[in-house]
Amino acid sequence: MNSPPPPPPPPIDRLSGLLERFPVRAELSFTGTLCGVQSFTPPPGMGYLHLLRRGTLDVTHPPRQAVPMRLHLRAPALLFYPRAIAHHFHNPPIEGADFTCAQLWFEGGQAHPLVRTLPGAIVLSLDEVEGLGASLDLLFAETGRVRCGHRLLADRLFEVVLIQTLRWLLDHPREAGVPPGLVTGLSDPRLARAIVAMHDAPGEPWSVEQLAAVAGMSRTSFSSLFRQLVGQTPADYLSDWRIGLAQTGLARGSSIKQLASELGYANPSALSRAFAAKVGHSPREWLRGSLPPAPPAR
Which end of the chain has fewer CB atoms < 10 Å from its terminal CB, N or C? Predict the structure, then answer.
């Protein structure tokens, strides 16, 4: 008698651990009708999430920004900038465009894992993102008129919309033009298990064999697929993840000694050497001159 096939592995949460360690905060910045030309020149560490409710919108970018020089949006649409890219909105004064937008503060700035892996600009139809309708109804209701606490609630709702957008991107990286990296790795159910394991336990002495076992794959197949979808070896990805956590920890006031113990390094010197090799500066130099601007206090 043949044995029944093993049950499928339980689903995993691909986002919570990532966003708990590298938070993203949203802050309502504008809502209403846009006329004329509006320019956005965000500082390092800031992105934007724009929601176009009605009308059309022409967007231009300066050259050498790794994004199209011009975009034409038709409502309803979402325009997501994960990183600080200057952009300009052009609208005829008579027609205008009705929209709402939020500034996004990525902890770690350019070192945030999502900032490093996502395209510079992502355009989606609001109808494309599954489950977004109810959140948008609440968000537009809050941004449509002033009520007690409406800014705080709008900020939280923008964060909900962002998470729903990230969920969609994890499931549709090709449609969004996401290059090889973290998001494309998490889009594969097998690799996702290994990546989430590294995210949840960065101090473990992970070997390729152990990670392949978590993924339910052979070592060779796992290594090949990981390099294809993530763009680097599992060991290099784990090293980048640990150094990113070290940067976040240093910015929050943790000591090198404490971080070395948490992140699986033999001693503080080993972490300092790995940090300098990845970042190009010692932890002390990086703290002194490379921290991104802090988001506004909540």
Answer: N
